[in-house]
Specification:
Distance between the termini: 24 Å
Number of helices: 8
Largest sheet: 5 strands, mixed
Radius of gyration: 17 Å
Helix content: 25-40%
Shape: globular
Strand content: 15-25%
């Protein structure tokens, strides 16, 4: 089973021996499917999605569902979705979705959040390499805000506080999927049917097999 990974702390760290919570989840997945796990390390998430579409990799951890992706991928849940927060420059306040208007929003390449945001062409969205780069762009006032999950927030909290960036908590639960998924290529070479893969992963999710990895 070939997984594509990119640098996305604290979920994925690129190294000779990759590590992070999603790496641990992928190892558990490999055991569930009785496969040997190998990785392709990518410079960004968008490249991973392209490799999945072409069938050059079998799986990505943390692939959000979109209508476009449904044409080349299928999904199985492995954990509950993390909460989203908004990090902004110190002079910007975000109270609700309408406050995104007129702001320059950093979005990591290939990332999706929820359909309303992803499809909103009225917003000023700019592509960034990753969330760590996004923080530096916020400090330099090159962007106004970006969204981040609680794990990433905790990882970089000292830098966020030192730079006097603001953190806003918003409730996107009605807009977002309640679960986080493995995305499997429809051209995968796992030797299992789509139904078999989904069933095995769902059973593992319901048993809590992935909890030791996703809640360290």
């Amino acid at each position: 089973m070939v997984a594509c990974i990119d640098d996305h702390p604290p979920y994925q760290y690129l190294a000779d021996e990759p590590y992070g919570s999603h790496i641990s989840d992928l190892k558990i997945l490999a055991k569930l499917l009785e496969k040997e796990l190998s990785y392709i390390q990518s410079p960004n998430f968008a490249r991973c999605v392209a490799l999945l579409k072409a069938g050059h990799v079998d799986v990505i951890a943390g692939l959000n569902e979109t209508e476009k992706r449904k044409k080349f991928a299928f999904y199985a849940p492995f954990k509950l979705a993390d909460k989203l927060t908004v990090i902004t420059k110190k002079d910007i306040t975000i109270n609700d979705y309408s406050d995104f208007q007129g702001k320059i929003i950093g979005v990591p390449r290939g990332s999706t959040y929820f359909a309303k945001f992803d499809n909103d062409t009225s917003l000023k969205k700019v592509s960034i390499q990753n969330q760590r780069i996004g923080l530096s762009l916020l400090v330099k006032e090159r962007i106004d805000l970006m969204m981040a999950n609680s794990y990433m927030l905790n990882l970089h909290l000292p830098d966020i506080q030192k730079s006097e960036l603001k953190i806003s908590t918003m409730n996107f639960d009605e807009e977002r999927a309640k679960e986080t998924y493995f995305g499997f290529s429809k051209k995968n070479e796992l030797g299992l049917t789509e139904e078999q893969v989904v069933k095995l992963v769902k059973q593992g999710f319901e048993r809590g097999d992935f909890l030791p990895a996703t809640n360290p």
